Amino acid sequence: MDDRLFKTAMSKFATGVTIVTTDLDGEVHGMTANAFMSVSLDPKLVLISVAKHANSHDIIKQSGKFAVSILKENQTELSQYFANQLKEEIDVSFERFEEQPIIDDALVNIACHVYDSHEAGDHTLFIGEVDNLMVQDEEPLLYFEGHYKQFK
Q1: Is residue 23 within 8 Å of residue 63, measured between CB atoms?
Q2: Which domains are assigned to the chain?
Q3: pLDDT in the model for residue 87
Q4: Are strands 27-33 and 15-16 parallel, antiparallel or unpaired?
Q5: Are 98 and 132 contacting, i.e. CB atoms less than 8 angstroms apart?
Q6: Are residues 102 and 82 in contact, defined by beta-carbon separation less than 8 angstroms?
Q7: What are the CA-CA distances from residue 45 to residues 5, 36, 129, 131 (Å)?
Q8: Closest of 38, 53, 71 to residue 143, by C-alpha
Q9: CA gap 49, 120 in Å, rounded
Q10: How far apart are CA 31 and CA 20, in angstroms?
């Protein structure tokens, strides 16, 4: 199996879209991620998978914390921006939740501190213990076969 076949197979799994944010020395860093999942109820744990070459990787390691903002269906542009898919700059409004930067008006915001981490190939799996969360009752932004989708 080659890399293209593997990526095609993995794209058949529909996911939500998240922005993972953290800060270090007062500077906010963020990245788009769909490699996110819940891990445990007791304690409440979530997992993000971050490429070792990603700018946010070392910052999460150093800060020991991160937030996950699960995007709503009308937040495609934010996902594209943090995935470096837009050429132009956009004005991103960060709120603070549990002293962490979050995407304002996201479907869900989850504040975490790093509980554990595991190297896995060219990524690191960061397990976060949930400090607190906020939830809205709206529709999510979805990702399937390399394209953004919405519930219909």
Answers
A1: yes
A2: 16-146 (2.30.110.10)
A3: 85
A4: unpaired
A5: yes
A6: no
A7: 31, 11, 5, 9
A8: 71
A9: 9
A10: 5
Tens place of pLDDT per residue across the chain (152 aa): 899 999 999 999 999 999 999 999 989 999 999 999 999 999 999 999 999 999 999 999 999 999 999 999 999 999 999 999 998 889 898 999 999 999 999 999 999 999 999 999 999 999 999 999 999 999 999 999 999 998 77
